[in-house]
Amino acid sequence: MRSDTAPRRAVLVTRPAPGDAETAAALAALGWDPVLAPALVLRETPPATLPRAQALLLASRAAARALAPVPLPVLAVGAGTAAEARARGFADVTAAEGDAAALARLVAARRDPTAGPLLLAVGRGYGTELAAALRARGFRVIRRVVYQAIPAAVLPDAALGAIRAGHVAAVLVTSPRGARILVALLRRAGLAEGTRGMRALVLSPRIAAALKPLAFAAVDFPARPDPALLPALLGPPSS
Q1: How far apart (Å, rounded) are the C-alpha atoms in residues 233 and 29?
Q2: pLDDT per residue over 6-15, tens digit each?
Q3: What is the pTM of this model?
Q4: Sheet holding 118-123: strands in order across?
Q5: At 3, phi and psi to the nearest 5?
Q6: Can you list the domains of the chain with their CATH numbers?
Q7: Could you tell me which of 78, 84, 81 has the C-alpha nearest to residue 99?
Q8: CA-to-CA distance for 42 and 68, rounded, in angstroms?
């Protein structure tokens, strides 16, 4: 049974592994109790060979993790993806400002449509809008699926227990698809009303829109769509 006097110190982290551990560590450093509740499970499916291209586009950290380094200029969607690519051994990496529109602008500014195709590494079902935006600018784009994002079947027991006990102060959501899955999982567990006392910390208005079926105490955004900025929106617990 919920205790109304119990402190709300738990924070649900719906980001998939391995990025969830990074977010959890940042929350713990602030004094929160992170509870891992991934909405998606990532499975790498890199192709055996990659086509020739003038540059490699990475629209997510998962795409960077899925590929072995190739001798191509890399344009990454944001700083986190760029850092992941460099850590994996990619040498020539440039970061956009955090979303697909920014990556399209960066490509248009740095690459020549007549210099050859662009290789866009994505998860299954992702990247079609980015590819269309680049094709509209005159680029030839070759999409290659390098990972799958599989919906979680249930939320972990620790997450369900924290929600039922009223201990959750906030939930961090990093993608529209993850938001839709979270809504479905909470409904399935009979906990759709359990979010009313929580803050939702999200990266974009699209994610906030996907959470509309749930009621939150507040919905907040960071200055740019970078998952590393979400913990700082909470600050330390007040007590």
Answers
A1: 14
A2: 678 999 999 9
A3: 0.82
A4: 40-44, 141-151, 118-123, 55-58, 74-76, 93-95
A5: -100, 120
A6: 10-39+152-233 (3.40.50.10090), 42-150 (3.40.50.10090)
A7: 78
A8: 17
212, 216, 222, 224 alpha-carbon torsion, rounded to 10°: -10
Helix, strand and coil percent figures for the chain, each rounded to 5 = 35, 20, 40
> Within 10 A of 193 (CB to CB), how many other CB atoms are there?
12
Distances (CA, A) of 118 to 63, 124, 143, 144: 15, 18, 8, 11
Which residues is 13 bridged to in the sheet? 36, 172
Which residues, including other chains, have CB under 8 Å from residue 215's CB and lie 6 or more apart?
A: 193, 195, 196
Q: With both helix axes pointing from N to C terminus, report the angle between 100-110 and 128-136 in degrees, rounded to the nearest 10.
A: 30
Q: Which long-range contacts (CB under 8 A, 24 or more apart) does 45-51 make?
A: 45/124, 45/145, 45/146, 45/147, 45/148, 46/146, 46/147, 47/144, 47/145, 47/146, 50/119, 50/144, 51/117, 51/119, 51/142, 51/144
C-beta of residue 76 within 8 angstroms of C-beta of residue 198: no
Strand partners, 123: 147
* Residues constituting the chain: 239
Q: Report the alpha-carbon distance of residue 204 to residue 173 in Å, rounded.
A: 10
Token output for 93: 């990496």
| Tokens matching residue 142 | 């070759």
State how beta strands 10-13 and 55-58 pair: unpaired
Distances (CA, A) of 114 to 101, 107, 108, 137, 141: 21, 13, 12, 11, 12
pLDDT digits (tens, 9 = 90+) for 9-43: 999 999 998 889 999 999 999 999 999 999 999 99
DSSP designation for 104: H
